[in-house]
């Protein structure tokens, strides 16, 4: 049974959308300061823009502690985020998480069904019968989120508040900045729930439960690397997941390519504060590298 581990961790980056709702471009950059904030200039820009890598489970309290963000955010005329949350639309899109004519019990063996149900009950106190008509991806994302919140409880308890992406968008609105969404809620929901056939989703759900220790290790390492503002390490943790479990091109590379058709025009029009999941910033297909290849100067911002 093949399990696309990399996809699961990339998917958790956009999971806060349901609830409410990467680094250096070359090995040579490893010696530079740890930072999640990058300045974009040159290539005809009248004023600089900024890239900031976010993390889905941290909040506005982390933003307030990141002193270097204050001036770039205030000075930017626009704010760019992955999506702008519309709670009214979220309620209408809830059906995308459901299966109409199938149940999870139709897709996996009774033995595996009992295995998943037992794990769910240990996490939440409810069995799989109560979620049998949810798409398997819905259940898996829920389990990943609970696992993450349990493993990292002490850290997350410190960072209570609004999800940082949401907070930055709302702050931009209050300051009368133009807020631009790179994607719609519908696009992200489709990406999340409909990319894989239901049978493959079910296989992934079973494999997640059988290999939950790997999930736990990776989630802890990712959060620790992020809190260190170490994008190189964050990338290495993500990249350490075995390749045979599949690639995450549809979640990272393909979306970066799509965004690169929009970002240059926005930055040429006026200075932008671009806040997207940190895993989108780096690597050979990351926004940092792509912007540099397009002629921009992209430099780290730190104390």
Spell out the key features of this protein.
50% helix; disordered N terminus; six-stranded mixed beta sheet; 17 helices; alpha/beta; 303 residues; single chain
Describe this structure in words.
With 303 residues, this protein is of the alpha/beta class. It has one domain (5-275). It has 17 helices and six strands. A six-stranded mixed β-sheet has the order 4-3-5-2-1-6, sandwiched between helices. The radius of gyration is 19 Å and the shape is globular.
Summary, kept brief:
The protein is α/β, with parallel strands linked by helices and 303 residues long.
The main sheet comes to:
6 strands, mixed
Distance between the termini: 47 Å
Give the structural class.
alpha/beta
Please tell me the total number of domains: 1
Question: Helices, strands, pairings?
Answer:
Elements: H1 5-12, H2 16-19, E1 37-41, E2 49-54, H3 60-65, H4 70-75, E3 78-81, H5 87-93, H6 104-107, H7 110-124, H8 136-151, H9 153-158, H10 164-174, E4 178-181, H11 185-194, H12 198-210, H13 212-227, H14 231-239, H15 253-259, H16 263-269, E5 272-277, H17 287-293, E6 297-300
Parallel strand pairs: 2-5, 3-4, 3-5
Antiparallel strand pairs: 1-2, 1-6
């Amino acid at each position: 049974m093949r399990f696309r581990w990399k996809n699961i961790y990339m998917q958790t980056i956009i999971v806060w959308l349901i609830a409410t709702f990467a680094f250096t471009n070359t090995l040579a950059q490893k010696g530079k300061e740890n930072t999640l904030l990058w300045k974009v200039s040159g290539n005809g820009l009248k004023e600089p823009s900024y890239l900031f890598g976010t993390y889905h489970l941290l909040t506005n309290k982390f933003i307030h502690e990141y002193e270097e963000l204050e001036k770039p955010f205030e000075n930017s005329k626009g704010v760019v985020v992955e999506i702008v949350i519309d709670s009214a639309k979220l309620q209408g899109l809830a059906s995308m998480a459901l299966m109409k004519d199938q149940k999870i019990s139709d897709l996996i063996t009774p033995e595996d069904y009992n295995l998943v149900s037992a794990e769910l009950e240990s996490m939440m106190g409810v069995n799989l019968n109560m979620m049998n008509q949810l798409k398997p991806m819905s259940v898996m994302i829920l389990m990943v989120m609970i696992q993450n919140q349990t493993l990292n409880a002490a850290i997350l308890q410190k960072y209570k508040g609004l999800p940082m992406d949401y907070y930055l968008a709302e702050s931009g609105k209050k300051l009368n900045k133009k807020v631009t969404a790179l994607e719609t809620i519908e696009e992200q929901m489709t990406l999340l729930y409909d990319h894989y056939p239901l049978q493959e989703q079910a296989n992934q759900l079973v494999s997640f439960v059988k290999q939950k220790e790997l999930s736990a290790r990776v989630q802890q390492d990712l959060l620790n690397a992020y809190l260190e503002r170490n994008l190189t390490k964050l990338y290495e943790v993500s990249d350490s997941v075995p390749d045979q479990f599949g690639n995450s091109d549809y979640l990272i590379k393909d979306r970066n390519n799509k965004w690169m058709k929009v970002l240059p025009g926005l930055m040429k029009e006026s200075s932008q504060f671009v806040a997207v999941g940190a895993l989108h910033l780096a690597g050979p297909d990351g926004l940092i590298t792509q912007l540099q290849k397009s002629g921009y100067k992209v430099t780290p911002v730190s104390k």
